[in-house]
Amino acid sequence: MPSAADSFTSSLLDRDAQPKCSRMGLAVFACLQNAIIGGIVFGWASIDRTMLAAAPEDGGANLTAIQTTRLFTFASSTAMLASLCLGPILDAYGPRACLVVAHVLVVLGCACFALSTEMWQFSLSVICIAFGGPGVGLSIIHNANLFPKNQFLAVSVLAGSITLSFSVLAMLNSIWELWHVGFRSLFGGYSLVAAVMLLGTVLISPDAPYEKEEAGDDDNSIFSFDSPNQDDFYHPSAEEDYVDAALYTYAHHHEHPFLMTDQSLRSTLRRDGLDDDDDDEEDCNEQSALHKNKSPLRKHQSFLLSKKAVQSHNEKALQAMSLKDQPFLVQLRSSTFARGVLIFMVTSFLANFTIASLNTELEDLAQFPVGVQHDLSQQFTWLLSLGMPYSVLVGWLMDKAGLEICTLLTLILGQVSTFLIMVPSFVPFGARAVMIFGFALYSLFRQFLYPVFLAIVSARLGFKYFGILTGVGFALSGVAQCFMAYMVGFVHSATSKGWICFNIFQIVLMGCLMAVPLADFRDMKLREEKMNRALRSGSRKSLRSSSRLASSSTPLVEKKTAEESDSNLSDADYGSTDKGKVGLDVW
Predict the structure, then answer these.
(1) Interior CA angle at 327 toward 321 and 333, to 5°?
(2) What structural domains and CATH numbers belong to the chain?
(3) Could you report the per-residue pLDDT of 74-120, keeping only the tens digit for each?
(4) Are 563 and 248 in contact, with CB atoms under 8 Å apart?
(5) How many whole angstroms separate alpha carbon 138 and alpha carbon 205?
(6) Which biological processes are named by the entry's GO terms (predicted)?
C-alpha cells in the first residue's frame, strides 16, 4: 500500500501544472535541502576566531585557535569519509532513505553542539554535522535526469547549491555580534530548522532516483516512444530490454555464458554523441528497423559500441567496452577513476586547507591590522557562500567545452587564486583589493571541484555504482585531510616565509596535475579505437570464414548454409527466439 509520502510525491508529478514547473519545483527543493544541510561546516572561518573563541559570558565557546583548527580538520575529513558510508545507502535504499539519515545526523549534531562544554563533546558534535551533510549532495544529483538536454548544467547547479550553506555560520556569527545571542541558542535554533527540512524530505523526496523524463517542456505526457521529441530523451528500461535480448541471443547461439553476465549494459546518463561514420550509420539503421520511430538510444555511442561487442562475441572488444558497461571492480580499478580521484584529492585538500589556515596565515604574515584581518575572514566566507551563480557558468562550460577543458580550468583557477592571495606579501599597494579578488576566484575554483568530479564519475562511469564510487573518492580525500591540522601547524611553526613557500608549492603541484585530464582524454580515444579495431577484425574473419565455407560446399550444402546464416543474422540482430521478441516488443 503506498505511503502518504508516496502519494504526495505522485501528486507533485501528476498535477495539471506544466511538466517544466514540476521538474523545476523538485530541483529547487533539492537545492534548498543542500543549502540548508549540505556544507555548514565549510563556513568555519567566520566563527573560528569570534564566536568559538569568545568567553562564555559573551556567548562564546571559549576554544583556543588550536582547538578550532582541529575541529575543522575533524569536520572536513569526516565530510569526505561520510560518502563511503552514505553512498551504499543511496544505492541500496534510494535517495529518500539517504536524505533522512543525513538530516537526522545534522539535527542531532547541531543540538549536541549547543549543549557541549568539553572538547570531545564539540568534536563529536561537529563530526555528526559533517557526516550528514554529504548525504544530501549525493542524494539529489539524480534530479539532473529530469533535464536531459542540460544534464551537466543541472548537475553543476545541484552540486553548487552547497555553497549557500557556507553562509549559515556567517549568518549565525552576524546574529551573535549584532544581538549578542549565545552560540548555544543559535545552534539549538538551527537544529529546529534542520528538523523542519527533515519533515519536508520525508514528504517530497522520492524512494527511487528519477530516471524517466518528461517528453518536453510543452508536453504534459510522460515519455513514450511515440512522442515527437523522443530523440532528446533517454529511457533506461528500453536499453535494458534490448540488452537482455542481445545477451540471450549471444548465449543461445554460442552455447556458453556471456563473458560479463555479472552486470548488464545499463546506465542512466549517456551523453556520447554519434559520429557520422559508416558503423554508426549502420547502428541507426538497425535501431530504425527495430521500431518505425527513431530510438532514444540512437545518440548513445557508448551503448551502441557495447552492444556491438556483445553481438560480436569478440573477447578483445568486450574488454574494450565502455566503462559505463563494465563490472564494478573494473570501474574501480580503471585509470579514468584513479585520475579523477587524484585531482579531486589534491584540489579539495588545498581548498579546505585555505579555509582552515586563512586566519592563521593572516596573523603570521601580518599584512593587515587585526581589525582588517577579521573583516577579510568575514568577506572570505560571504564570497565563498555566494558561489551559487558560478554553478551556472560551470555547468554551461561542462556542456559546451567538455570535462577535460573544465578540469584544466579548475587547476588554473586554483593557481591564480593562490597567487593573488600571496601577492599582498610583496605588493602592499592595493593589497586588500587584490586579496578580495583572490577570494572571489577561490570561490569560483571551489565551485568547479565537486561538479567536475561528480560529472567525471557520472559521464565516464555512469550511475550504476555512482554512490559507492563517489564515496570511495570522497573517502580517500578525507583520509588526506586528516593531516591538515599537522600541515597548518608545520607551516605556522616555520618562518614567515613558510606560507609563501607553501603557496608556491601549491601552484607548482596544480601545474603538474594538468597532465592528468590530457591523459584521460587520450585513454578514452584509445579505448574507442581498440574497440573499433577489434570489431572490424572480427567482421573480416567472419567474412573470410563464410567465403571459404561457401566455395567448398555443394549446392545443397550452400543452400542450407545460407538459410542458417540468414537465420543467425536475424537472431543475432534482434532475436528470433521467443525471449528475444518479448524483450523487444516494448519498442
Answers:
(1) 90
(2) 4-211+330-513 (1.20.1250.20), 235-268+273-321+522-584 (no CATH)
(3) 998 898 888 888 888 888 888 999 999 999 999 999 999 999 999 99
(4) no
(5) 13
(6) amino acid transport
